[in-house]
Write a structure and sequence with these properties.
The chain is an alpha+beta fold and about 180 residues long. The chain contains four helices and nine strands. The chain has an eight-stranded antiparallel β-barrel. Strand 6 (about 110-120) and strand 7 form a beta hairpin.
């Protein structure tokens, strides 16, 4: 009974967190988002992350604006065995600048991605609500133009993630990692 109640409480907290409205940054500039970013921070209450966070390392994201205002997203992570894990998405613009939607064929979920805060030559806080089979989860990423994030930036990301309903144990600054060779 106690475990069931606890599970229900955790599910309710996750549902409430997914409903927290994060608005995109004002005056969003798609062209300035272009280029390579390092994924230095990752935060979500999703069970797959809880099970795998200890082995996760920094990866890269390359963002390319399309002529129509959408965003090509290319992710890459170097695995311990030297192989590369890659994933790409075409994030479609919405009526709200800085907000994009896409369907992940890999994970079979719908994604509502918002650029919550950005200093284009330094960092970006990216908030995504992932929905699969009617269940939503929050995923926050800290992108940086370099492989390191200052203590102040790490604290900003942690606070942002806590405000999004993510448990403190599920907010991780990823260790540095070698990059995948260009595809």
């Amino acid at each position: 009974m106690r475990n069931t109640l606890l599970s229900m409480l955790v599910a309710l907290m996750c549902a409430l967190a997914a409903c927290t409205e994060v608005t995109p940054v004002a005056d969003f500039d798609l062209q300035k988002m272009a280029g390579k970013w390092y994924m230095v921070g990752f935060a979500t209450n999703a069970q797959w992350f809880v099970n795998h966070k200890a082995g996760m390392k920094m990866g890269t994201a390359v963002l390319k604006p399309t002529d129509g205002g959408d965003l090509d997203l290319s992710y890459a992570n170097l695995n311990a065995d030297g192989t590369c894990w890659r994933m790409t998405h075409l994030a479609k613009k919405t009526e709200t600048p800085g907000r994009f939607t896409f369907r992940s064929q890999v994970w079979n979920n719908d994604n509502d991605m918002r650029i919550a805060e950005v200093v284009y030559d330094d960092y970006a806080l990216v908030h995504t609500i992932k929905t699969k089979d009617g269940v939503s989860e929050v995923l926050n990423k800290l992108y940086s133009r370099t492989t390191t994030a200052t203590t102040a930036l790490q604290q900003k990301f942690t606070q942002f993630s806590l405000q999004s309903g993510i448990l403190a144990d599920n907010i991780v600054i990823l260790p540095e990692n070698a990059e995948c060779p260009e595809a």
